[in-house]
Write a sequence for this structure.
């Protein structure tokens, strides 16, 4: 898949996970709805400035848009769980996100130790 489509797909998935409409995101990112729609469909190559504005509104690092989504290989149930917890994380401040992710990391480490 080409990079423009990967970026568009990731923007759309993050936007939807946060329950933000195209209209709201485009307004907050200072762009037209049609341009955002074109980006999400992989029809338009966004500038770095546009990607940064979208990332700022979605409260994520811009680099996240560049990674091909591994969630495509998850089952529908697993994908829904991922979306649910991403949505929860996106609703809390960045410092709380880090604390929660640190707790999750610690739990995974304990689980891995128990498996050995």
């Amino acid at each position: 898949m080409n990079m423009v489509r990967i970026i568009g797909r990731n923007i759309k998935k993050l936007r939807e996970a946060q329950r933000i409409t195209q209209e709201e995101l485009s307004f907050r990112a200072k762009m037209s709805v049609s341009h955002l729609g074109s980006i999400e469909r992989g029809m338009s190559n966004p500038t770095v400035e546009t990607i940064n504005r979208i990332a700022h509104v979605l409260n994520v690092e811009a680099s996240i848009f560049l990674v091909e989504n591994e969630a495509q290989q998850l089952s529908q149930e697993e994908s829904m769980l991922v979306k649910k917890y991403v949505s929860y994380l996106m609703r809390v401040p960045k410092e709380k996100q880090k604390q929660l992710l640190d707790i999750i990391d610690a739990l995974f480490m304990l689980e891995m130790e128990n498996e050995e």
Observations:
- Residues 74-115 form one domain.
- The chain has two domains: 3-70, 74-115.
- The chain has a mean pLDDT of 86.
- The radius of gyration is 16 Å.
